[in-house]
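Bumping with the actual sequence this time:
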Amino acid sequence: MARPAPDAPRPTAAAVLDDAVRVLAPDTDANRLVARIAAGTAPRSVFATFALEQHQVIAADRLSFQHLARRADGDPPVADFFDLLVQGETQALKQLAGLADACELTEREIDGYRPRPGCQAYPSYAARLALGGEPTDVAIALTANFATWGGCCAIVESAMREHYAFPQAARDFFGFFAEPAPAVEEKAREAVQHGLDTGQTQPAMAHRYGRLLQAYELMFWDAVAG
């Protein structure tokens, strides 16, 4: 009598997250604005536009992450991940002030700015996920997107120093996201592992979320370029 096949090994959170980062990574030449910044050929004005748009993006994303944390109140590892992201958005907004100052943006200009729709598609979709997405799946999608975002920020930070002579304070926003974030990575693994253990996580759905987040981030950069 044939023996039953052994059960397939259960995936780990680390494997699920690594797979999402790999599968959802965009083409290396997809982001035309970052490529132009890296070459020093983008106009300096894009940095002012970037700062103005990010004021809107950060405020919206912070609310989305707060809502996701509240939705995950019964799942502490998941809530902890989103709570940490809220703290990160608060810190990022402080770092953004250096770029705004270097671009000579006034409070009146920041408050009266009319955002570009293409730049705000990302936070709008993040808000949609905050309302109805499974939080652990959102965590996977965000982790993949953060890897892409961090890579872009590293390129931009270096180019700002080499080609645009921006001071350190102006580059700190990009440096903040370019640096490894082991605490965020650890919380992401704990959140996703909790989702796997409880049956909440569906990697296929997380990839659907992630593909759209990646597309909307690319739309953001394209819209900044005008």
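The tokens above came from a reply further down the thread. The mean pLDDT is 96.
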